[in-house]
Structures are given as C-alpha cells and as structure tokens.
Amino acid sequence: xxxETFASGHRLLYVREIxxxxxxxxxxxxxxxxxxxxxxxxxxxxxxELGDSFQVVVLNDQITVRSLQRRAREEKCDLVVVPDALKxxxxxxxxxxxxxxxVRMLVMNDPRWRSSIGEYFxxxxxxxxxxxxxxxxxxxxxxxxxxxxxxxxxxxxVIDPVLLERDVQQLHAESLRFRSALRMDPEIFWxxxxxxxxxxxxxxxxxxxxxxxxxxxxxxIGLALLGPWADDSSRRATDNAxxxxxxICLRRDELLTNLEMNVAVAAxxxxxxxYSTHAPNSTTAKAAALGVRVATxxxxxxxxxxxxxxxxxxxxxxxxxxxxxxRDCMIRPRPSPLSLIGPEGLTExxxxxxxxxxxx
Length: 360
What we know:
It is a single chain. The chain is α/β, with parallel strands linked by helices and 360 residues long. It has helices at residues 11-24, 35-39, 41-47, 65-74, 117-122, 125-135, 168-181, 203-216, 232-241, 258-267, 282-290, 300-310, 319-331, 344-350; strands at 2-3, 30-33, 55-58, 79-82, 102-107, 141-147, 157-159, 189-194, 221-226, 248-252, 270-274, 293-297. The strands form 3 sheets. The protein has a 5-stranded parallel sheet, with helices on both faces. Helix 1 packs parallel to helix 3.
C-alpha cells in the first residue's frame, strides 16, 4: 500500500512510478489517499492513465503509523510506503505500533538542509525529525532519505529520479514543435520558469534582473512562464513587475504533465531557478539531463545541490547578482546532456524486499 494525502508538487508523480513498478513486478498494490486528492487535477494528470490497474482506498481516520498498519492488514498488504512522511503531524509517529506490516517512510525535505541552526530550530521541523528518529527504532518502521542526483548511493538513500519518459533526442525534437506552437522566435534567447508558479520561485525578482540584462544585451531576450499560477497574489506580483518590461514575456498558464515539463525545459535556452528553498529541485536535474543551461540563485545549500549537476556556483537571491548570472548564461555554450539516475532511484529502495519476519 502506498499512501499520499497531498496532491501538490511531484508527489503523485512519485506515486505513479511506485504503482507502475509494482504492477510491472506483478505485485498487487493499493493506493491509500483522501477524497480531496481524488478530486484534484493532479490526480487525473498523473494517475488516470493507469486506469483500474490498482485499488484505491479512502483514508478517513486520523493517519498514524498504527492506523496505516491496521488498514494495510485489512487490505492484505505486506508493506506500507509513505513517500512524504514529514508532511504528517507529529501525532503520525507517536503511539504504539504493531509488529507488522512494515511501514517504510521517505523524508523528502530533510530539515538539516536549512542554512543555519537558527532556521532549523525556528522551523520546528527538528521536532518532527526527532520523533521520526525515535519511530525508526521500532522494528516495524524503516526510515529513508531523499537525496539529490550526484549523491553517492547508500542503503537508506532514495535518489531523486529524473523521469524523462522519452530519450533526449526525441524530447529535443518535440521541443522544436513546442517552440513553434508557442511562437518562440528562434532569434530570441529564451529564459524560463517551468512548473507551478509560486512565490517561492521569485518571478518578480527574475523580471527585475532581466530588465538589467535587456538594457545591456545586444541580443533580444524573452521570458517564458510555463505552468499554472499557484495563487492570485503570485500572478498579480508578476503582472506588476512586468509593466513596461523591455523584453517579451510568453505565458502558458496550464497544468503540465511530466512529459510536457520535459519538453518545456528542452525548449528553453536557460532555466532560471531563483528559489526560496533549501531542498534540491528536480527541474535542475531535468535541465542537466537534457543539456540545458541553468541559472541558479538561492540559499547556499540549494546552490550547492545545483552545482553538482551544472558546475556553476550560482548566486544569492539579489537582483544585481542574478542579472550578472543571467548575462553569463547567455554566453555559455549549451552543456552536454548528463546521464542521471531514473525511476529506479526511487522505486528500488522503496519497494526493496521486506526483511524476514516483517510480513503479516
């Protein structure tokens, strides 16, 4: 049984890969979720294609390790996989747990990635982490950690996979059709932001930096915003920043499938990652796998993760520094595609054989 009660981000894409691999192994699988997730557009986007090849159960009770074990026994499951354990409250990890089935929990966003000790403790994530460690002492629970591409594999690591779905040559061929459909002038150097457009992606800052670039560049530039707006405030802030912008801004305001995300990244001359986050990002890995330039701005940990793939140090979230980084990207040669870890980085550790004695 795989459990996910949040539909945002790439969580349901992870669920799809887990379900697909289980089915490929001829292992029956149950998806435990909520009515809200089943109604979410992300569910249709990522899981509808699998049809009725898996069973869905709605989890109405408070979700804890014990309640998941009880439901898994009812569904005759030998393993429970929780792909984003820290999204649940502390109560999820507390209380008694049964001896079986095994609950395998993945930590997607390690609180220790935060830039300072102060941020770490202020986030209160340390409390969840402490409880998580304590719960891992149980024989019936197993804790795994998401790690970015470029990390040396270890038994308890899950490598954030690059899910291309086509080979690189096919994706670049499709990206030419994508550019034509969106009328992306080939004479323009296209910067872009891909995926859900949230405040964390600092698009007004990118716009201000591109204003500086446009005033000194001999070549025309454009900004492509390829993905849905997460909220009206982010859209309004960007609209205000774009008033009288000295460059073209192209928008495709709709939810993208994973394949469409890959094509969108391949269509850009440079992906701009100006993120207010400490965690690694899968779009950076997509760009590296497709041989697309990346401009990175953010926290030291975020830049360090990106640097493993791009070889570039990145800059702080500051307009002059970002403008300089964007100008540099325009004169860099397009990088060669990297061969990175695919879905097996996710599915092999999460669906690894169950230790002796942990079956129902």
